[in-house]
Input
Amino acid sequence: MKILLSADAYTTTLTNGVTVVVKTLYDTYTSQGHDVRILTMSGDRAAHHEGDVYYLPSFKTPLYPDVRLSFVRHHPFLDELKEWKPDMVHIHTEGPAGRLAKSIARRSDAPVIMTWHTDYAKFAFHDHSSMKAVEWSVKKLMARVYRGADMITVPSYKAKALLDGYNLKNPNMVIPNGIVLSRFTKELPAEEKEQMLRDMNISEDKKLLVIISRLSAEKNIEEIIRYFPALVKQDPKLHLIIVGTGPDKKHLEQTAVKMGVADNITFPGFVQHDLTYKYYKLGKVFLSASTFEMHSLTYLEAMASGLPLICRDDPCLKGVLTDGENGYIYRDEKEFTEKAMKLLEDESLRQKMADNSLRISKGFSEQAFAENMLELYERLIKERREQASEEK
Output
C-alpha cells in the first residue's frame, strides 16, 4: 500500500508527540513492506528532500511551538507525490502540510484520514466554551480545516467528547496511540545510572520521582513543585527530576527556589527522545499534573519503563491509569501527598503497581496501533473503490 503521512513538524530527533506518532507509523509500515512517504514543513524557508521525507518551506507562528505556516501552493515535490499516487493519505495536522496533502489526495482519489492530536483552541483560549464569539469562530474554523476528511481519528474518549462538541459532519473514531515498547523496556546498566546521577550531582541514596514533559504552562508542572515540599518534609531523601525544556523553565526553577525545594529538584534540560528511557529508569514513580493531554505518550512510556503513575484526575487517563492498580489519581494537594507517600513508603505496593504498568502498556504497542490504523485504511480504500465502481 502507498501511504502518505503529513505533519507540520517532523524530525528524526522526535521533539514532540505528533512526531513520535508519525515516526512510529512510518517505521512500522515500512518494516511491513508498505511504501510510505512523509510530507512536512521545513524548519526554515528552504525546501529539501531526505529519503522518504519531503520538507516544504515554512515559517514559525507564535500560536503554538510546533505550528508552522506556509504560502506554498505549487512545488516540484507536490508534483512528484501526485504522480506517485498514494492509496491513503493520513494527515496529522490542521496546518499547511494538511492542506497540501489534501490536494495530493484529490489528484489520486485517495481517502483522507485526519487525526486530531491537540485542542489548539483550549491552548489559546482555555475555556473557550464560555466565550461565545470565540466558540463560534472555532467551530467555523474546525469545519473548514476538517472539510474533505473521510474519517477523523482521535487517541482517547476524552478527545472524542471534545471533538463531538464541535459538531463536525465527519465521522470519527477512537484509535489509541502506540509506542515502540522495546525502547523503554530495556534496562539501564548500574554503572551508567551511577554516572548519570554523578553528572546531575544527585546522591545514590535519593528516591527519585520523574517528570518528562515540555516545560510550558499548560502542563501544570508548577502545581507539583508547589506540592513537593509536603513530600520532602516527610522524606528528605525524595528528589524530583524534571526532564525537558520550554518557555516555562525559568519560572519553574524560580518556583522551586521560592518553595524551598531547589536542592531537591533537578532540571536536566532537553533530552533526545531515544535517550529519555534512561531517565524513566532512574525513577521510582512518574508524575503529571496536566489536564491538557489528549492521550499523552509520556504516560505510556513511563508504564513501559516499569513505573507506576501519579496523575491529576483527567478523562484522558481512562484505560491508561486505574486508581489503585498501576498508580494513583489525585484531585488536590492532600490526595497527592497521601497517595504519593503511600506508594513511596511501601516498596512491595510500588513494585506491584509497576508490574501492572508493564502489563497495561503492552496494549499500547506500536504493532497494535499500526494494525488498528491499517484496518481503517483498508476499509476506507475498499469503500472508495466500491463507490467509484457504482458510479461507472
User: Anything to note?
Assistant: Residues 7 and 92 are 5 Å apart (CA to CA).
